[in-house]
Amino acid sequence: MQDFAAFWPALAAGLIVAATHVPLGMQVLARGIVFIDLAVAQMAGLGVVLAGWFGLEPSGAGVQLSALGAALAGAVLFTWTEKRWPEVQEAIIGVVFIVAANAAILLLAANPHGAEHLKDLLTGQILWVTPMQAAWAALASGTVLLLWKKGRRSRVGFYLLFACAVTVSVQLVGMYLVFASLVVPALATLRLAQWRLVAGLVLCAGSYAAGLALSVLTDLPAGPLIVCMLGAAGLLAFTLSSRAAA
């Protein structure tokens, strides 16, 4: 059984991700570009892989800059394509995701620990988050939220802030949880006329807490457990809200 001491930094990381990703996910759903989170997260992940390929320290500033630079490059690309070819924006997002994913696989192919690194990129290592990592993530996410209030209506502002938020979260919780944290609360609360943001935050935070607790008690991987908790809670919330609206 894992030590419960790991629970609290991991829960803090989950709450930080929820604070930015629930409102961002609602914007993503409203814009009809659901898979942008996977594409931008994969770009950030590719930046991490590239940094490792060049021998940079995993926890160093170079890796963070590489991840952020790759994610911002994706954001700039999507800003331009949405303006130039809005009718095929979702298809372009899908193409960028699959190319970036396979580029990462190729870069990891010669690495003896490549499979492990790829797994960490997808499912994350949330139970290994340190208090210092959580503190830096909180600072970065707080800055994103402050800027979000001013720049969310701008196409450029939306994509750039989205890239910054995803860069922080993908290194904390992995790509699968990034996607689930963005899409599930937004979809689950879609039919709510009031308190939608609050409901989404409660659903996301509760799922992180339940998944982490189960992981500590059962020694099962935390990331997949949280994703499953989010899926179950989201389905229940969507069903109940749909019945109430009928």
Give the secondary structure arrangement, pairings included.
Elements: H1 7-31, H2 36-53, H3 61-84, H4 89-108, H5 114-123, H6 131-151, H7 155-173, H8 175-188, H9 196-218, H10 222-245
Helix pairs in contact: 1-6, 1-7, 1-8, 1-9, 2-3, 2-4, 2-7, 2-8, 3-4, 3-7, 6-7, 7-8, 8-9, 8-10, 9-10
* Count of distinct strands: 0
Q: How does the overall form come out from the CA principal axes?
A: globular
Largest sheet: none
Number of domains: 1
Q: Classify the helix fraction into a percent range.
A: over 70%
CATH architectural category: Orthogonal Bundle
What's the CATH superfamily, by name?
Answer: ABC transporter involved in vitamin B12 uptake, BtuC
Q: Which series of helices and strands comes N to C?
A: HHHHHHHHHH
Topology-level CATH name:
ABC transporter involved in vitamin B12 uptake, BtuC
CATH class: Mainly Alpha
Count of separate DSSP helical elements = 10
Mean pLDDT, all residues: 86
Poorly predicted segments = none
Amino-to-carboxy terminus distance: 45 Å
| Beta strand % | under 5%
The helix-and-strand class reads mainly alpha
Describe the model.
There is one protein chain. This protein is mainly α and 246 residues long. The chain has a single domain, classed as ABC transporter involved in vitamin B12 uptake, BtuC. It has helices spanning 7-31, 36-53, 61-84, 89-108, 114-123, 131-151, 155-173, 175-188, 196-218, 222-245. Helix 3 (61-84) runs antiparallel to helix 7. The chain is globular, with a radius of gyration of 17 Å. The model has no long low-confidence stretch (mean pLDDT 86).
